[in-house]
Amino acid sequence: MLKKNGFRNLLLLAFLGCLLFDALAAGSFAQPGRGKGRGRGSDRGRDRDDRGRPRIVITPRRPRFIAAPPRGHVVVRIGSENYYRHGNAYYRRVRRGRDWAYIEIGPPIGAAIAILPRRHSRIFIGGRVYYQYGATFYTPVVVGAETTYVVARPPIGAVLDTIPTGSTAVTVDGVSYFTLDGVYFLPIALGTATKYVIVAKP
Q1: Among 73, 65, 64, which residue's Cα sits nearest to residue 100?
Q2: Has residue 125 been placed in a domain?
Q3: Distances (CA, A) of 95 to 67, 127, 180
Q4: Which domain holds residue 52?
Q5: Any domain includes 194
Q6: In a domain, 137, yes or no
């Protein structure tokens, strides 16, 4: 299974590489924040490893702990877990040492909204339509004359500009990933930008 998923991830990266060919040809890979490449003769500098691959050094954002959810919050039960919603923000109760604390999270899978966030993007992956807003993906659910939008599991192949807060860094077979709630994000550097591709569990 591990080998199968690794092969699927390689195929996915090859497909994305074809889509980004023009940009790669123009600027090649570079470490985020370093600017454009310095030319053919200087690819192997501080920004690259001994194989000429880009060094991607990213520190994921740590969750911010608070003692209690904001005043006026609403308790929302999704599946077997309670969440605490205040406006468009969700909070989860977690253990911190001997005490309980709350951390802000993205909308949990299964949460439903009536109106999509402004500036969302409509994308098609695997023959399905998703509405992407940051690292959150919604699928439409029609009941009678009403349409609601339910948070879905991030689809494999989607590309993010940022990883969700609380993601942790892991290394599998020498490849660095970020993961959160069973979802894996593979960072790739493109010019001065870093993107995160959702991949199968390696």
Answers
A1: 65
A2: no
A3: 11, 40, 17
A4: 2-61+159-199
A5: yes
A6: no
pLDDT tens by residue, 107-142 = 999 999 999 998 899 999 999 999 999 889 999 999
Cα separation, 60 vs 91, in Å, equals: 19
CA distance 137 to 134: 8
152 found inside a domain: no
Domain shared by 7 and 57, yes or no: yes
In the block, tokens 């860094």 appear at 169
Q: Are 55 and 80 in the same domain?
A: no
| 177 touches 197 (CB < 8 A) | no
**DSSP label of 7:** H
Question: What is the per-residue burial (b if ≥16 Cβ within 10 Å, else e) of 38-59?
Answer: eeeeebeeebbeeeeebeeebe
Residues 42/48/54/57 CA torsion (nearest 10 deg): -130
Residue 21 backbone phi and psi in degrees, to 5:
-60, -45
**Domain count across the chain:** 2
Assess whether 99 and 70 both reside in one domain.
Answer: yes
- How far, in Å, are 34, 156, 197 from residue 174 at the CA level? 24, 21, 17
* Nearest residue to 137 via CA among 188, 198, 91: 198
**41-83 pLDDT tens trace:** 333 344 555 555 555 545 556 667 899 999 999 999 998 899 9
Which tens digit of pLDDT belongs to each residue from 33-43? 444 444 433 33
Instruction: Tell me if residue 25 falls in helix, strand or coil.
Output: helix
